[in-house]
Amino acid sequence: MSAAQFEARVTANTRLGGGYFTLELEADAPTPVAGARPGQFVMLRGAWGRELLNPRAFSVLHAEGSRLAILAKPYGVGTRRMWALRPGDPMTVTGPLGRGFPDPDPDVRDLLVAGGVGLPPLHLQARVAAAAGLADRQELYYGGRDHHDLVLLHDFAAWGVAAHLATEDGSLGVRGRVTAALAPRLAQARANHERVRILSCGPTPMLAAVRTLGLAHGIETLLCLEENMACGFGVCLGCAVPVHGEKPYRYCCTDGPVFDAREVRWP
Amino acid sequence: MTHRSPSARDPASVELACEFGPLRLQSPILAASGCFAYGQQFAAFTDLRALGGISTKGISPLPRHGNPLPRICETAGGMLNSIGLENVGVEAFLRDKLPFLRELGVSVWVNFFGTDFPTYIDCARSLGNVPGIDVLELNISCPNIKHGGIEFGTVPEVAHRLTRACVEVSAAPIVVKLTPNAADNVAMADAVRQAGAMGVSLINTITGMAIDVRRRRPRIATAYGGLSGPAIKPIALRMVHQVATRFPDLPICGMGGILSGEDALEFLMAGARCVQVGTANFAEPGACPRITRELRALMAELDIARTADAVGGLHPWPPEAEMHDR
User: Fold this and answer.
1) What is B103-117 written as a DSSP string?
2) Is A55 an 8 Å CB contact of chain B?
3) How many Cβ atoms from other residues are within 10 Å of residue A71's Cβ?
4) A230 interaction partners in chain B (CB closer than 8 Å)
5) Which of left, alpha, beta for B21 (phi over 0: left; psi -120 to 50: alpha)?
6) Which chain B residues contact residue A93 at CB under 8 A?
7) A43, A237, A251, A253: best mutation site toward chain B, by most B Cβ within 10 Å?
8) Quick one: CA torsion of B51, B170, B162, B165, rounded to 10 degrees?
9) How would you write the pLDDT of chain A (267 residues) with one tens digit per residue?
10) Predicted complex ipTM
């Protein structure tokens, strides 16, 4: 579905702990974002005047009819302002943008590997799969520094999606990084000739580790990337992603944000 | 203070159509080079036919892949970019991009550049004789090009020779996009004017920098980039005003941080005959049509009948009597 820019209002700003918050927005009428695939994103901008010009990119956490939700954490000046938003505050939304993850497939297990604010595409993939009766084909691998970093777990439980958790301090799940939980699963999949694929979103160092692991096991690995972008629809050319192939760069906003791990040109 | 009625005239009666040298523009609001790609991406969001024109991403003879990342960062009231003049090249532009632009019926300005005299001239020859291209906007001002490119935009004699060489091979009029990084913009404008440029575009981005103190490194990969957005608007207005005052007959396309109809009108009053909107397009794909509507409403409110009537003619300030009192 083609993207649009529209005005919306904040209906809820929910603090989740660990600094994370969900922002729920509602427009006057149903929006094209309701048709967003997991991994697709919106550009959001508040009434920020002339000081902060550019909108910020957020993966769609959930969207239905005239409503949509995102997950965020204060990081820079824009997200700090969003943290303070209250019901009724206006936001300009552009979306849905980019190309998302493939549909859940009854013949393939999706290993959803998440970290930090990278949860939404995988949360939405699990939601979509559950709605299609494919919850048992989804497994969540979710890591953070401590248990505060692991949010919205109840949704996965409600959908019947198994969650494998990892925290660096051991306060929830296995102690260590998410790859500590994922690695044995990949070895098992390879040994059993299971059809699995990795869908991952999170901090770039995590994605780099997931990519290395996925490639080492010969498992299809799709990474949902994040880059600085001013527009989100292929004009500013700020969000270049280094890739192998004919051209040295592709664009996070229009070619991605989901890329095959084999294509990404990382060390 | 005199009280003004909300609208001194009917906005529908305001004539936005204007002349820019030999060109007739349906509106003085154009989309700026580098901020509108080749136009297609905006068609999903907005009616491009409402624009006065579109200046394309800068075109070079061969495709360019651009700079390493990060390429952009936001700064107070603006943004820095160092995209590296990435573009599809002349051949692909003419084949894949121009037909779309030509269909729109708006003025098509093709921004172009080279890396030395022969490539600039080659580009002007290839693009300047193609039907449907109304203006060649000669980019001698991009800060993100190495190999001494800065000289084209900062040394008047070099700019003069380059402009003359391009004018000679192009049937389309040449508008030279000047850099604010030159020591004397009036001298630069004079140099390209005498070389046969039909007009000038003012200004390109201003070279700037931002630093991430936590990582102790520049925020963009090339360290320096071009600053755009409302942060540069006062500088742009001053430069437009200086050049317009010195050369009242030279058509000037003004730009630099235009976000509203009032911003656009400031540029017109400074002496620009038309304006380009750049950075605003990123956040708001419908920025150009909105700014056009705002300009129309503001001109109606101020009882300005036509765009030409808005151009230049600032009242002397402060009034003479007040000066004598001091």
Assistant:
1) HHTSEEEEEE--SSH
2) yes
3) 23
4) 72, 74, 79, 81, 279, 282-283
5) left
6) none
7) A237
8) -170
9) 589 999 999 999 999 989 999 999 999 999 999 999 999 999 999 999 999 999 999 999 999 999 999 999 999 999 999 999 999 999 999 999 999 999 999 999 999 999 999 999 999 999 999 999 999 999 999 999 999 999 999 999 999 999 999 999 999 999 999 999 999 999 999 999 999 999 999 999 999 999 999 999 999 999 999 999 999 999 999 999 999 998 999 999 999 999 999 999 998
10) 0.91
Token pair of A245 as six digits: 């192939």
Q: Copy the structure tokens of residue A106.
A: 């009854």
Concatenated DSSP letters of B229-291: SGGGHHHHHHHHHHHHHH-TTS-EEEESS--SHHHHHHHHHHT-SEEEE-THHHH-TTHHHHH
Q: Which amino acid is at B82?
A: S
pTM: 0.93
Q: For residue A42, what are its two tokens?
A: 């919106």
Q: Touching check for B38 and chain A: CB below 8 Å?
A: no
Residue B138: closest CA among B76, B206, B195: B195
User: Could you give the CA distance from residue A63 to residue A43 in angstroms, rounded to a whole number?
Assistant: 14
Chain A: closest CA distance from residue B277 (Å): 14
| Torsion angle, alpha carbons of B40, B45, B51, B56, to 10 | -30
Nearest to A51 among B69, B72, B76 (CB): B76
Q: In angstroms, what separates the C-alpha of A136 from chain B's closest C-alpha? A: 38
| Lookup result for tokens 């009036």 | B186
Residue A2 forms contact with B (CB below 8 Å)? yes
Q: pLDDT, tens digit, for every residue of B188-225?
A: 999 999 999 999 999 999 999 999 999 999 999 999 99
CA separation for the pair B168, B121 (Å, rounded): 9
Give the burial string for B260-270 (b: 16+ CB within 10 Å, else e).
Answer: bbebbbbbbbb
- Tally of CB atoms within 10 A around A179: 18
Cα separation, B166 vs B172, in Å, equals: 10
What local confidence, expressed as pLDDT, does residue A129 receive? 97
Contact at CB, B74 and A54, closer than 8 angstroms:
yes
Question: What six digits make up the tokens of A265?
Answer: 């040109």
Query: Which chain B residues are closer than 8 Å to A96 by Cβ?
Result: none
Of A50, A54, A248, the CB nearest to B282: A54
- Write the residue in B36, B69, B71 that is nearest to A235 by C-beta: B36
